[in-house]
Amino acid sequence: MGAANTDDSDLIRRVAQDRDESAFSRIYEQYAPRVFGLACRMMNRREEAEEVLQDVFFSLWEKAATYDARRAPVGLWIMVMTRSRCLDRLRKRSLREGKENSLDVDETGRGLLDTLADSLPTALEDLASEERRREVQAALAALPDAQRAVLEASFLKGESQQEIADRTGEPLGTVKTRMRLGLAKLAEALMDRKQ
Amino acid sequence: MNHDELKDLIPPFALGTLAAEESAVVKSHLAEGCPECGRALREAHWAVLALAQSAGDETPPPRVKRALMAKISPAARWSWRPVLALAAGLLVLVGLFRGFSTSVNRLEVLGTTGEITAQGQTVAPGATIKLGEAIEATRGKTDFRLAARVVFRLNEGARVVVLRRDGRFLVRLSRGAILSVVKHGTPYAVESPVAVAAVRGTAFYMSVDSPQKTSVCVCEGRVQVHALDKTEEVVATHHTAASWRRDGDAAVKGPPGALDHSDRDVETLRGFLPQ
């Protein structure tokens, strides 16, 4: 993993300093399916998912110089950026459709990466690995259905707790509890493994 | 807000689904250095990162990479400009001798009150855009002339792709609004997610009110509207408008949404068409 991330960091450096299109192309080949997978699930419209994909990688091209390898591995940086872009588009979409939406979207995901800045770099790097991805999928699948549904509605659709409660007819307190427990169990499973 | 209530806001804060006001309260509390909430936030962010990593892979269509590489390539961005300018110059020269017959498929940017992009790159008035490129009116309104036969105006936020299909011009409107003035005898259509409005010369306005609803205003003349299971010919001497809303596989006709155009706009656009 360490070697992989060193390679990625080197590719980003070549993009930032040399404007190296072949390095950019390699990063795209490696991460585009992951970005497109998340964007498809969040946007639920392939056309918009394609726009997100193009948007994220164009940002990477434009802002490669701001990448800081000490803060996060390239893969996580890209995925955080992807989710933030999707959330922003979902917010704009619901505004266009006349729904109220005043979500505070962290467009670059900087807040998230700042919070984790003092985490072990190796642990973050490990989280981006293929093996760990499969473990995370398993941990998610092991959550009770109700907790997983709340997390997915919030994570993938950007729904607020109140919106989930309104849609499902569950009391707001129940939604809050399920979200808290779901996140805690997921974090616990990950923290256990990284220690 | 007491501490337990603040701590309750940490999960939605980490997931980015908190309203701006509540988010500000949480940020201010965290800035005070509350160790318990700081720990809760870190844990929640770990879980959010894990969720971001857990979505499955999906192979994107190759056109996305092609468009992206074209967008970042210095060759694509700069080398073609003199060539385009030269081509435009040649077209003008040849046009002097051959009328407008050489301008088939030519899409010119006439002017803008803001900014437009083609394939994500800003395009200046006077430039030519290739058919098939994604055009977006990012700010203000922009006027275009297509093959000296159609002039259209994109309102702010509109997104279109202009194509030539089956011997006619087709504008795919995925969002926003477009006002078109079409020279008599020109096969031309605008397609939204819900409806296609086809004409052979007239002035009409189409707006994607939502992915499920499209409004059409026939400013004058005759427009065929095909909306899912319905086809209707709308004939008007002065602005007749309606909307078509998707209901399953069927379209339901109803009152139009906002219609941002006027007689003056139609006349302005008509003035750009050769007599």
Model description:
The complex is a heterodimer of chains A (195) and B (275). Chain A contains ten helices and no strands. Chain A has helices spanning 2-18, 21-43, 46-63, 74-96, 110-115, 121-127, 130-142, 145-157, 161-168, 172-194. The relative contact order of chain A is 0.10. The mean pLDDT of chain A is 80. By secondary structure, chain B is of the alpha+beta class. Chain B has a five-stranded mixed β-barrel with strand order 9-10-11-13-12. In chain B, a hairpin with a 2-residue loop joins strand 8 (159-165) and strand 9.
Rg of Cα set of chain A:
18 Å
Q: What order do the SSEs of chain A take from the amino end to the carboxyl end, as H and E?
A: HHHHHHHHHH
Distance between the termini of chain A: 17 Å
Low-pLDDT windows of residues of chain B: 75-81, 91-102
Assign an overall shape of chain A.
globular
Could you give the order of the helices and strands of chain B? HHHHHHEEEEEEEEEEEEEEEEH
Query: How much beta of chain B, percentage-wise?
Result: 35-45%
Main β-sheet description of chain A: none
Determine the structural class of chain B based on helices, strands and strand pairing.
Answer: alpha+beta
Total beta-strand segments of chain B: 16
What integer is the average pLDDT of chain A? 80
Q: For the CA atoms, what is the radius of gyration of chain B? A: 24 Å
The DSSP helix count of chain A reads 10
- Helix/strand structural class of chain A: mainly alpha
Query: What is the percent of helical residues of chain A?
Result: over 70%
The profile of the biggest β sheet of chain B is: 5 strands, mixed, barrel
**Which two chains have the most extensive interface, and how many residues on each?**
A-B, 69 and 47 residues
| Oligomer classification | heterodimer
| Separation of the first and last Cα atoms of chain B | 70 Å
Helix fraction of chain B?
Answer: 25-40%
